[in-house]
Amino acid sequence: MVYTIIPDIHADLVRLDASLALAKGSVPVFLGDFIDANAKFLHGVPADRAVLARVKPMIEQGEALAVMGNHELNAILYHRRDAAGVPLRAHSEKNRKQHDSFLDAYGLETQEALTEGAWFLTHLPLFIDRPDLRVVHAFWDEALVTIIKERRPDGYLREEDLAEIGRESTEFGRAVKQITSGREASLPAPYAFHDFKGEARHEVRLAWWRDDQTWRSAALSVPDVNELPEGDLPPEWRAAAYPHSAPRVFAGHYKMEGAPALQHPRALCLDYPFAPCVYRWRGEQDLMPENLILLDLPALEPVS
């Protein structure tokens, strides 16, 4: 079996069509984040509805595999409330901006929005874990996956899980948040960096497939690493790289810059918004650079 691994689409129908063209004759495997357009990375216009209309039948009929991204999880939470009537994801200005294109397409807490969220729950597991292949949106960590499997062995969330995930009030809730959003370290005061939308952030995502031990070498999704400290990571944030003997694992999420490249023989992040790509996996033990394929799309203007 040949699989074509397809990273974050973010309501970009042009990117989706180009990815599926490269996946012809194989099984597409989506890494989540179908929704919520980002204008900086978009070819054409936001197309949340059209993207979901294209991929849902493929997943329902078993023609494609997929996992849940943090944007699908956030959408589920944003349109639901707890027993006290409080949104499970805060309706802050920052959260609303991240969810703009979905809100424009479906509205706030409408029946359509709730129906799409219910579909995400029943059709998008948090991970795929097979003897030869692992798929996750953001972060593969054995301990976190084990915590989730103890309650949800198949990786599918249920409605009754949502309140604790939204509050991150339990070990299970925090594990779900981390594998969909990544490992994030709090920057020491007074440091902050500005993300791709210009928002100031005080927590930075860390590469988990490498054993880099400095703030600047380990950081991901940081347009200007000079905003970060120069020194080593604190001991509590240092972690061993993904084992070279472990099954292949594919992830998206991190808005990598530069040309797509292999950084580990068994682990690959495919989310390169300015150089969209897919990986054609034919069952090889170690990943191969020739199977990393660029999409033929118009160039986007990099973030300065």
Provide a descriptive summary of the structure in words.
The chain is α/β, with parallel strands linked by helices and 304 residues long. Helix content is 29%, strand content 15%. The longest helix has 13 residues, at 48-60.
Question: How would you concisely characterize the structure shown here?
Answer:
With 304 residues, the protein is an alpha/beta fold.
Key descriptive features of the protein:
about 300 residues; alpha/beta; five-stranded mixed beta sheet; four-stranded mixed beta sheet; 10 helices
Query: Which structural category do the helix and sheet elements fall into?
Result: alpha/beta
Distance between the termini: 41 Å
Largest sheet: 5 strands, mixed
List the strand order in the largest sheet: 3-2-1-13-14
| H/E element sequence | EHEHEHHHHEEHHHEEEEHEEEEE
Low-confidence stretches: none
Would you report the number of β strands?
14
Mean pLDDT: 95
Q: What's the alpha carbon Rg, rounded to whole Å?
A: 18 Å
Strand content: 5-15%
**What's the overall geometry?**
globular
